[in-house]
Automatic annotation (TrEMBL):
Gene source species: Sphingobacterium suaedae
A Pfam family hit: CarbopepD_reg_2
PROSITE patterns linked to this entry: TONB_DEPENDENT_REC_3
Membrane-related topology note: Multi-pass membrane protein
NCBIfam families associated with the record: OMP_RagA_SusC (TIGR04056), SusC_RagA_signa (TIGR04057)
Keywords noted in UniProt: Cell outer membrane, Membrane, Signal, Transmembrane, Transmembrane beta strand, Transport
Subcellular location field: Cell outer membrane
Classification lineage: Bacteria, Pseudomonadati, Bacteroidota, Sphingobacteriia, Sphingobacteriales
Protein name: SusC/RagA family TonB-linked outer membrane protein
Domain TonB-dependent receptor plug residue range list: 122-232
Length: 1003
């Protein structure tokens, strides 16, 4: 046996040496060809142009200055391709230096676009597929790719509700389609799903991304079946090219500050507030005044004040460093990158570090077999105790920060104990660690290289494994006034396996084009968590490191398993590049549903007509360079409920009996359902793509309409059933809208260009039915005929004045009204204010959004300015609501006033605890327009760069969230603002303004 193994290995080593010698011989016959690619009309350098040897797999890309280097034999043909430019072929002569010019393409839509399980020429696409502009991916210093997408793609809403370092923005594609199930888009990276793995879009380093496509319409998303109802985001990362190794360094650093400070009341204003509150409530102030509490009195007497916002805030600092290495031989290509991000937040204790590594490889094992990897590892560190913004904003300027011994006070406004010291959490040092280890690989067989008759037939195997562990270690002891001590360790992890078998066939038969894709895929995700808690420790020395030393210990755990199976078939047919047809059907099965409906079928169809290719359009080709009409219809699904929700589960509870420990088994309060099935969204889309005057003006217009039925809703059950609720398929929602994208080249001169991109989105959303009985659900604010997410409240018409109360104006209107109270409209006309006087005042989702990007270039200088707007959204304003509801026990923003007999405001209520007895939420218009990004860059001339030993140099300065036009009173109309009473008020964080300076180097 040993001899046989030795013999086998000897043969393998010999074959490997022969292959290596053959490769070296082939490379020796080739000469390194160098050159530069420029725009034929402007003479400007073109970076990112793909240069390949025709008939070979060797390829590379031009640097920022247009330079390239690639090995090629004399007589070989080089192929130059670039988005928006006409493809060019060039025969290699004896010389080694080439100067190449590319002409702008007559049809900018003829580049390849990723569409899911493959790619298509944009001119052949029948669905609505949007590509994120490459300039936003390569030239914006962002921590998360969603920040680059924001406002740049029509009807893709990116909400930055949290600016906490390490938090990801939320995304919404074409509005909300579901009442209770998930609404976020499905994210796929290099063909392997990132969604539903417990991974985050924040795991993907923006520097590694080559392109981002967003599938929006039913035909485009149906290929992902149950995952497609909320849109699909396809991310493709960079890969290696043939040629000498290229090293790229990208680094930036900068500072951050709050985009807007919600200034608190001044010391003098707060004293007036205290005096007014004492007058209204007929109570005395501490020790005769003018403050309310002991600690405040001491500081007031000594003339000591504290700026609490300044105490918890700091100048944020951010830095990012990325090194990418790419290259390869004709048969082996690689892209390797490593990235380090360090962000110190603008609130004390909010720190974030990210370390990531990626290795993408492609190997031509034989002429018919290609294998490769798309693997990455990322580590997130969010350690540290965090200051509390809500507590700081509530503090009196006379509150005491420190005790006499230098420790932080527990209650700075003692004897007031409602508001704790906002800096107390910074004395703690919890660990928050998260990792994502994703090892993905593929193998592709080209049967046409084995048997010419099978040309166009390929099989691809995708395999993915994702391991996502998370850990939170925390301990609260004497420094936070927990003298008993409390420690907790939380461990979570998920392991996800993805297997995809993809068969494709792509052939042209004369004027006919056929493209077939078949899929069989399986997915499995195992999740588990364990929580260990200890209370009452002898001391704080070991913290969470010795939970066994606690007097009281508690352990809990949980685990679940999710599995799915999918089959899909898609046929694309095209005739003479004029008429296109796409037919898709997908079947999904998932373990989350009842035994009777685990599988769902999701079909779609789409047609497109390239009108500009018709003979009758030949006379207009100088004006109409592209005109395509698209129509599609399809069905997609949504499984957005938790695992095991369709089952009748049981709990085990310990109890003592006869001196023994026993376990009792009982049903949980949620009933199972064997008939629970998928939500289904059926949609129609019609669109037109156009280009005028050689695509100097181009864009697309889409109108869509979707109807979601069999919605996943929790239905309440009568108590006599023994259960509280059950998941059911009820309700219908209709969603429609308009997408417009316009691109124009306003000025194109040799040394100066000006280009503009405008996007506009309008969305209409309404509930058609809830529970099948034609009735509204008041508790969830679901009203038939109205949008999902509405503001349902009273109508404020002013503030009750003393004269009105004295004259009895409130009689037969609001008998309980007093001067200074909110005056609400009696809409029902019954002479009282009650629930019948509430109405729908607005919607929480914006009615329309838009963005405009202007890019100016002058020689080697470039200026990019991006403005986005969100209009028609309404939110309850917690700052206004809390300003008087805390019964005079807190500070308030200076912008928010209050009614007094002397200041007869008709806008602000009094400080009385009866000024808002009906619980009016103070809904406010949350619309805004924001100067989102401004970036100024400079490309160092090639001759200068070469003299300092580099291939290319770009330096830039960038500003983000520079100014916001809004009437919103608060930190920001987008920012999360959670009031007291929530356990999550420590996640309040202001919108951030950034000033960044960076450099990109190519070696």
């Amino acid at each position: 046996m040993l001899k046989q193994i030795t013999k086998t290995y000897s043969k393998a080593i010999l074959m490997l040496l022969c292959a290596l010698l053959y490769t070296l011989y082939g490379l020796a016959q080739q000469t390194e060809r160098k050159g530069r690619v420029t725009d034929a009309s402007t003479g400007s350098s073109l970076g990112g142009v793909t240069v390949s040897v025709k008939g070979k797999t060797a390829s590379t890309q031009t640097a920022a200055d247009g330079s390239f280097s690639i090995p090629a034999e004399q007589g070989a043909t080089l192929l130059f391709t670039y988005v928006g430019y006409t493809e060019k072929e060039l025969s290699v002569g004896a010389g080694t230096t080439l100067n190449v010019t590319l002409n702008p393409a007559e049809n900018v839509l003829d580049e390849l676009v990723v569409v899911g399980y493959g790619s298509q020429k944009r001119s052949d696409i029948t669905g609505s597929v949007a590509s994120v502009p490459k300039d936003r991916l390569s030239k914006l210093p962002v921590n998360n790719v969603m920040q680059a997408i924001q406002g740049a793609v029509a009807n893709v809403t990116i909400s930055q509700s949290s600016s906490i370092p390490g938090d990801s923005p939320s995304a919404l594609v074409r509005g909300i389609n579901s009442m209770s199930a998930g609404t976020g888009p499905y994210v796929v990276v290099d063909g392997i799903p990132l969604s539903k793995t417990d991974g985050s879009i924040n795991d993907i380093n923006p520097n590694d991304i080559e392109s981002v496509e967003i599938l929006k319409d039913p035909s485009a998303v149906a290929i992902y079946g149950v995952n497609g109802s909320n849109g699909v985001i396809l991310i493709t990362t960079k890969r290696g090219n043939t040629g000498k190794p290229t090293i790229k360094y990208s680094g930036y650093g900068g500072v951050e500050e709050a985009a807007h400070i919600l200034e608190p009341a001044s010391p003098e204003e707060l004293l007036n507030r205290y005096a007014e509150y004492a007058r209204i409530t007929n109570t005395s102030l501490y020790n005769g005044g003018p403050v309310r509490n002991q600690f405040e009195f001491d500081n007031y007497k000594n003339g000591v004040t504290t700026d609490w916002l300044d105490a918890v805030m700091q100048t944020g600092v951010i830095q990012n460093h990325n090194i990418g290495l790419s290259g390869g031989s004709e048969n082996a290509r690689y892209f390797v990158s490593t990235d380090y991000l360090n962000q110190k937040g603008i609130l004390r204790g909010y720190n974030y570090k990210r370390y990531s590594f990626r290795a993408n490889t492609d190997f031509d094992a034989t002429k018919y077999l290609t294998v490769g990897t798309s693997a990455f590892v990322v580590a997130h560190n969010r350690d540290g105790g965090r200051a509390n913004l809500l507590q700081a904003a509530a503090m009196s300027p006379y509150a005491r920060m420190y005790n006499d011994d230098g420790t932080l006070t527990q209650f700075p406004m003692y004897s007031e104990q409602l508001w704790a010291n906002p800096l107390l959490p910074t004395t703690l040092n919890p660990e928050r660690r998260e990792f994502n280890i994703s090892l993905n690989g593929y193998a592709e067989v080209d049967f046409g290289q084995i048997l010419p008759a099978l040309n166009g037939l390929k099989y691809k195997f995708n395999g993915g494994y994702s391991f996502v562990p998370k850990r939170i270690n925390e301990y609260e002891g004497e420094s936070a006034y927990n003298f008993a001590g409390l420690g907790r360790i939380t461990n979570q992890e998920s392991q996800t396996y993805t297997i995809e078998n993809i068969l494709t066939y792509n052939r042209d038969f004369g004027l006919h084009h056929i493209d077939f894709t078949g899929l069989y895929a399986a997915k499995s995700k195992y999740y588990q968590e364990a929580v260990a808690t200890g209370e009452v420790f002898p001391n704080d020395a070991l913290g969470w490191g010795n939970l066994g030393g606690a007097s009281t210990q508690k352990v809990s755990s949980y685990a679940d398993l999710y599995r799915s199976i999918s089959q899909m078939g898609r046929i694309n047919y095209g005739y003479d590049s004029r008429y296109m047809l796409t037919l898709t059907v997908r079947r999904d099965g998932a373990s989350v549903f009842g035994d009777n409906h685990k599988y769902g079928m999701f079909p779609s169809a789409a047609v497109a007509w390239n009108i500009h290719n018709e003979s009758f359009m030949s006379s207009t080709k100088d004006v109409v360079s592209n005109l395509k009409l698209r129509v599609s219809y399809g069905v997609s699904g949504n499984e957005g409920i938790g695992i095991y929700q369709a089952l009748s589960l049981m709990n085990s509870n310990p109890f003592a009996m006869n001196g023994l420990s026993n376990a009792a088994i009982r049903y949980r309060t949620r009933m199972g359902s064997d008939d629970l099935r998928w939500e289904k969204t059926a949609g129609f889309n019609t669109g037109v793509d156009f280009g005028l005057w050689n695509n100097r003006l181009n864009g697309s217009i889409d109108f869509y309409n979707t109807n979601t039925q069999d919605m996943l809703l929790l239905q309440n059950l009568p108590r006599l059933t023994g259960f509280v609720d059950v998941w059911s398929n009820l309700g219908k929602v209709e969603n429609s809208g308009l997408d417009i994208t316009l691109n124009s080249k306003n000025i194109t001169k040799e040394n100066f260009t000006w280009a503009t991109t405008v996007v506009f989105s309008r969305n209409w959303n309404k509930i058609v039915d809830v529970y099948g009985d034609g009735k509204d659900d008041l508790g969830n604010r679901w009203f038939i005929g109205e949008p999902l997410g509405v503001i349902y409240d009273y109508t404020k018409v002013g503030i009750w004045q003393e004269e009105e109360i004295a004259n009895g104006v409130n009689k037969g209107w609001d008998e309980q009204a007093e001067a200074g109270a909110v005056k609400l409209a009696d809409l029902s006309g019954d002479g009282i204010i009650n629930n019948d006087d509430r109405s729908i005042l607005g919607q929480t989702a914006p009615k329309w959004t838009g963005g405009i990007t202007n890019t100016f270039t002058y020689k080697d200088f470039s200026l990019n300015v991006f403005i986005n707007t969100v209009q028609g959204a309404m939110r309850n304003n917690p700052q206004i609501g809390a300003a008087a509801d805390e019964l005079g026990r807190r500070s308030a923003p200076a912008e928010i006033g209050y009614w007094t007999p002397e200041n007869k405001s008709n806008e602000w209520r009094s400080l009385s605890n009866r000024s808002n007895i009906y619980g009016y939420g103070f809904p406010t218009n949350a619309s805004f327009t924001r100067l989102k990004d401004v970036t100024f860059s400079y490309n160092l001339p090639k001759d200068v760069a070469s003299r300092i030993g580099v291939g290319g140099v770009t330096v830039y300065a960038s500003g983000r969230n520079l100014y916001t036009w809004t009437n919103w009173i608060g930190w920001d109309p987008e920012a999360r603002d959670i009031t007291r009473g929530s356990t999550n008020d420590n996640i309040n964080y202001p919108m951030v303004r950034s000033y960044i300076f960076g450099v990109n180097l190519t070696f």
